[in-house]
Design brief:
Elements: H1 42-61, H2 82-96, H3 104-107, H4 111-118, H5 134-145
């Protein structure tokens, strides 16, 4: 049809299939079983957690199951994108049975950093003496000196 010919425009109407617009969903692997760390030594807990995170990362990134992921290398540098990072955080949260922030992988990008952040610190914490007032310092000193002979 030529412009300005005076003939009415015709619209070709075809069959529309709404299913073509629906997002395709890939089957995700089943959720990993809950990770039980209780009763393990702190070194063993860390190793088990790193192994689980590495397994989940390999699944998400489509790497071979035996691919090595260096503990101290950023997963983002290895090709993990932001959607994969959120997915990994979700799977780690499911494994541990607790909520985790969406920014987990951006704040702690390596296997070692993740494990260190997620595991409780078993070492006794030293008090922050600079932030304590005189009364708190006196109480702390008294508790430390109890049982000490003059």
């Amino acid at each position: 049809m030529q412009a300005g010919s005076g003939a009415p425009a015709q619209l070709a109407i075809g069959r529309f299939d709404a299913a073509l617009l629906a997002p395709r969903r890939q089957a995700s692997p089943p959720a990993a079983p809950r990770l039980e760390l209780a009763g393990l030594s702190s070194a063993r807990r860390r190793g088990v957690l790193i192994e689980r995170i590495a397994l989940l990362a390999r699944q998400i990134m489509g790497l071979p199951i035996d691919a090595t992921i260096p503990e101290d290398q950023s997963l983002l540098e290895l090709g993990m994108d932001s959607l994969m990072a959120v997915d990994l955080g979700t799977r780690i949260a499911q494994s541990l049975g607790r909520a985790l922030p969406a920014t987990l992988l951006f704040d702690h990008p390596s296997l070692a950093a993740l494990a260190d952040h997620l595991l409780p610190d078993d070492r006794p914490r030293r008090p922050d003496l600079d932030s304590m007032n005189e009364a708190a310092l006196a109480d702390l000193l008294e508790s430390k000196l109890q049982g000490v002979e003059p």
